[in-house]
Amino acid sequence: MSESASDLAFAVELLSGMGRVEARRMFGGAGLYAEGLMFGLVDDGIIFLKVDAALKEALVAAGSRPWVYSQSKGPKAGVPQETSYWSLPEAALDDPDEAGDWGRRALAAAQAIKAVKTVRARKPRSGRTGVPAGKA
């Protein structure tokens, strides 16, 4: 599953129309980053993009498939898990402009998802006042 340097260079070059893109190796594959945020990944030579509901629908319509993995240990060991990453459509593999458009949409989805997570993390849980126990 380790990605070749040529696979990573191809992904970075293909998506370069959206601005600076970096590939960072991780867990046998590689993450694709723009503006300091992971918006995609490369696994087994296939480019996958982070999706929200609208982008997922568009990628499904374009013939994409999900990135699926199975944990090797734990209660879900061997059970395929669909993720929020979907493959770049085949037509975009030969069209840097189209690939860049998909990449920008994936980056926007990743930014929106991060913003929601940040708001949730800041929101106090019900019943908590922020006052340490015994200090109220």
State the main characteristics.
6 strands; alpha+beta; six-stranded antiparallel sheet; 26% strand; Yope Regulator, Chain: A; globular; 136 residues
What does this protein look like?
A hairpin with a 2-residue loop joins β2 and β3. The protein has a single domain, classed as 2-Layer Sandwich (Yope Regulator, Chain: A), CATH 3.30.1460.30. The longest helix is centred in the C-terminal third of the chain and has 27 residues, at 96-122. It has three helices and six strands, in the order αββββαββα. A six-stranded antiparallel β-sheet has the order 1-2-3-4-6-5. It has helices at residues 5-14, 53-61, 96-122; strands at 22-26, 29-34, 37-43, 46-50, 66-70, 80-87. 34% of the residues lie in helices and 26% in strands. It has 136 residues and is of the alpha+beta class.
Structural class: alpha+beta
Q: Which series of helices and strands comes N to C?
A: HEEEEHEEH
The helix tally amounts to 3
Helix content: 25-40%
Per CATH, the architecture is 2-Layer Sandwich
CATH class: Alpha Beta
Shape: globular
Tell me the Rg in angstroms: 18 Å
Largest sheet, in brief, is: 6 strands, antiparallel
Q: Number of DSSP strands?
A: 6
In percent, how much strand structure appears in the residues? Answer: 25-35%
Q: What's the rounded overall pLDDT mean?
A: 89
How far is the first residue's CA from the last residue's CA? 54 Å
Residue ranges: pLDDT <50 for 5 or more in a row?
Answer: none
- Strand order across the largest sheet: 1-2-3-4-6-5
CATH superfamily: YgaC/TfoX-N like chaperone
